[in-house]
Amino acid sequence: MLLDCAGKSLDLSQPQVMGVLNVTPDSFSDGGDFFSTDAALERARRMVEEGAAIIDVGGESTRPGAQPVPLEEELRRVLPVIEALHRSLPVPVSIDTRKPQVMRAAVAAGAGLINDVNALRAEGAAAVAADLGVPVCLMHMQGEPQSMQTAPRYTDVVDEVIGFLLDRAEACIAAGVARQRILLDPGFGFGKTAGHNLRLLRYLDRLTAQGYPVLVGLSRKSLIGQILDLPVDKRLYPGVALAVLAVWQGAAIVRSHDVRETREAIRMCRAVRDVQP
Questions:
Q1: Residue pair 30/23 in contact by the 8 Å Cβ criterion
Q2: How many angstroms separate the Cα of 203 from the Cα of each of 155, 156, 215, 256?
Q3: Is 171 exposed, middle or buried (0-12, 13-18, 19+ CB in 10 A)?
Q4: In this predicted model, what pLDDT tens digit does every residue of 64-122 receive, in sequence order?
Q5: Closest Cα partner for 252 from 161, 173, 135, 171?
Q6: Which helix (H) or strand (E) holds 215?
Q7: CB burial readout 213-232, b (16+ within 10 A) else e
Q8: How confident is the model at residue 31 (pLDDT cuts 50, 70, 90)?
């Protein structure tokens, strides 16, 4: 399956890695590291060399407790970077944002995919996405980043996440977004306890069976710190293990800070999974 990302293709016939590029001062893992356009471009080039099939640019941190970023500041952060990446890289660029105005400006600057932690629930977001005609990733999040980890509760986290995502997909289709342009993300770490995250991953195949490509973000997440008591900069190996578990269950895209290691691991996973009986 080839996904047309505004003229640049994303091949989903095999699992792919989405490289994380946060142009923020406060993201949980790499906040401040790639705040300048030159540093961001260099980092993106390195991730493409390591095997990233798409680069995800975000200008507003959505880590637990993060405060909203004003529209003009988010635009100032992401647009020069997206323009530079679009000109310089052979792979698509996605924009990680909840704001319809940023979606529109980012696609005009060269972004080919909208990655929305709010699942296009902001006023006008679904209509903007339909008008822009690029693929969209709809993510599940219980609550808002400022408070989502205070006391997340579910009766059945797997059923509720799947139900929410399918409802949002149908709402977006009704708004004019083409079904074949929709991806789903269960939102690991967004309004979920460690137990919720583990259960979601254990039964991820129930989501991947729904017919939409599934994107997962498990890289360096707090889940790893809670289980293994590791700081953010020591979470590479368990993060790769989680990526392999996701791909084994059918995940199409793995969003990662550690591209080379993740890419090599999921290629081996696919080689084993695709062995014919």
A1: no
A2: 15, 12, 15, 21
A3: middle
A4: 777 889 999 999 999 999 999 999 999 999 999 999 999 999 999 999 999 999 999 99
A5: 135
A6: strand 215-217
A7: bbbbbbbbbbbbbeeeebee
A8: very low
Question: Residue 200 in contact with residue 186, Cβ under 8 Å?
Answer: yes
Q: Is 270 annotated in the active site? A: no
Q: Name the residue ranges covered by the structural domains of the chain.
A: 2-273
CA angle in degrees (0–180, nearest 5) for 126-132-133: 90
The token pair at 37 is 């356009």
Options 98, 104, 181, 255, the catalytic residue:
255
Task: Please tell me which residue in 221, 234, 235, 267 is annotated as part of the active site.
Answer: 221
Q: Is residue 179 flagged as an active site residue?
A: no
Domain spanning 2-273, CATH class: alpha beta
How large is the angle between the packed helices 71-88 and 37-49, nearest 10 degrees?
50
